[in-house]
Amino acid sequence: MRLSRYFLPVLKETPADAQIVSHRLMLRAGLIRQHTAGIYNWLPLGYRVLRKIEQIVREEQDRSGAVEILMPTVQSADLWRESGRYEDYGKEMLRIVDRHERDMLYGPTHEEVVTDLFRSIARSYKDLPRNLYQIQWKFRDEVRPRFGVMRGREFLMKDAYSFDLDEAGARRAYNKMFVAYLNTFARLGVKAIPMRAATGPIGGNLSHEFLILAETGESGVFVHKGVLDKTVPADVDFDGDLQPIVDDWTSLYAATDEMHEEGAGAELGDDLVSARGIEVGHIFYFGTKYSKPMGCTVAGPDGAPVDVHMGSYGIGVSRLVGAIIEACHDEAGIVWPEEVAPFKVGLINLKSGAAETDAVCEDLYAKLEKAGVDVLYDDRADERAGAKFATMDLIGLPWQVIVGPKGVAAGVAELKNRATGERVELSFDAILARLAG
RNA sequence: CGGGGCGUAGCUCAGUCUGGUAGAGUGCUUGCUUUGGGAGCAAGAUGCCGGGGGUUCGAAUCCUCUCGCCCCGACCA
User: What coarse category fits the chief subcellular location reported for this protein (predicted)?
Assistant: First the structure.
């Protein structure tokens, strides 16, 4: 993409409305623009990041055996009356009345819809287990939206719903999501730590929140320092026994301030790390909470109807854009992990309009594109070097290729690593080899 | 939903107390110069001063109603 033809409104000054660093950077780097309170336009650069995250989430869900569907954003209130949540949900639910005076709502979550869908299709225990997921926009009418996309009213979420014959099956489904989440966050380039979460009326220990550690996180977290060094096993067999992996990750203390126990923390002594975190995922087993009132049953092996055991599993996709920036930035701007970066390379022509740098840049640009490398080429003729550097640092692409007249005369350009700041002068071919490899 | 704050040029913000021709910086346009870290000089364009009603000879400024946004708290992916 040529910057001269793109739609990238970077701001030199910090917008007055934005308080936290990710919100400020998302506005300054031209990722989003606010439409109204808690609702955002996604501009090209931000939308690319959103899609990258979405795709990684999708691939890891698929790999774990979940099946993608797409459910409606607008739902019938009747379903929520069946589950008993219509009145409970309160003002967070955006309620709509259609032309026939029927009560509708903009979905804040999809347990009711997916349970209704599944009960209309599944007849036998042989239809189990299943895990259906979607990546869909939701709306919760937060009293007080803030922090940009981290706490918007409209947000993009991956939500999965598992259906099993019994609790043991549900636990296997739960473990699959647990491990899928570990894989997902690792690929996203962030460290997300599973922490025991409140399970509500269901009880048990099958609820975990995944939190990214960041100074500006909204929740206080207390973790055993050993958790920070845990790694994700490669090439997990999702049909095998995942319990050892889950046990390993949950063996060390990790809790948000809500769940924190002073005593347990004190026992850890120097091993206790106190930090802040942003919740980006939540997995939850809730048994027959919806299947029972909504009549989602299948015939068991003995022919008798069985209430299906369910769990739900969320990842805040749009929130992750902000959360990743919270964890990955410096004074100059965003520092994208390569997997989610909107472009891999920023190509800077320090003297657009000069024949020699233009020729080198055009050649590098064409060859990188041909090699399948996402490149944002700053070909603007009316910006000076300093402005181009500042813009490129702000938007945080992992690699910068800097082409100036002096280097071109010597047959080299500069390759800069955004994260480390390291720069090396290399021949054009060597740069191509490094970036296309 | 309780408490507080703010709406003035694309952006950041003066001006409001004490009514009297709409301001600065930055950005934008044009020209010249400049050319490796958000350049310099010169010229220029840009505003229903959030909206309605009122007071007044006269309102960005005072009164009133209203809409929107932000912050703190309670709440939450």
Answer: cytoplasm
